[in-house]
Amino acid sequence: MTARLPLRLLRSAAFAAVATGLAVVAHLFAGGGLAYSPVAAGFAVAFAAVFPLTARERSTVQVVITLALVQVVLHEMLPAMVTAGHGHGVFGMVVAHGWATVLTGLWLARGEAALWRAVRGFAVRLFATLAEIVMPVTGRGWWPAAQMPRTRLPLRLVLGRAPPFTV
């Protein structure tokens, strides 16, 4: 299933917000300073980096790797734009960023899976409902019983339906 532009924009914005938020929190936690323009620039960079990847569902590994790469870029942007010479322990920084990136990436991947599950479920339910409206199930029905899509919505809609028309 391929995502259309509104869903792609929404997914890109959500990823960019989480990635930028994670970078900002990590940066502040490490004692760095902060200004609004680097945060906005970081959001724009994260959005632009992830937008081409939002056309289809991504695996957990892809989400975590993408987040890790974006974190590296954002980490380099924040010290360079805010406080040149910002110093911190390299090993501790790598471990902290690594753990935060993996945990946040897993969280994003679960959200990604849930979003696509909802989109697929909505599409099946919408198709089944529209099929019922256009061609109501009578007798054997539109689908054989074994292939009938499972939905939580009632398949038989009562929309002022009259008794069957006979000629």
From TrEMBL:
Residues crossing the lipid bilayer are: 12-29, 35-53, 60-78, 90-110, 122-143
Quote the protein name from its UniProt record. Answer: MFS transporter
Which keywords belong to this entry?
Membrane, Signal, Transmembrane, Transmembrane helix
Q: Which organism is it from?
A: Acrocarpospora phusangensis
Which range is the signal sequence, renumbered to this chain?
A: 1-16
Q: Which domain of life is it from?
A: Bacteria
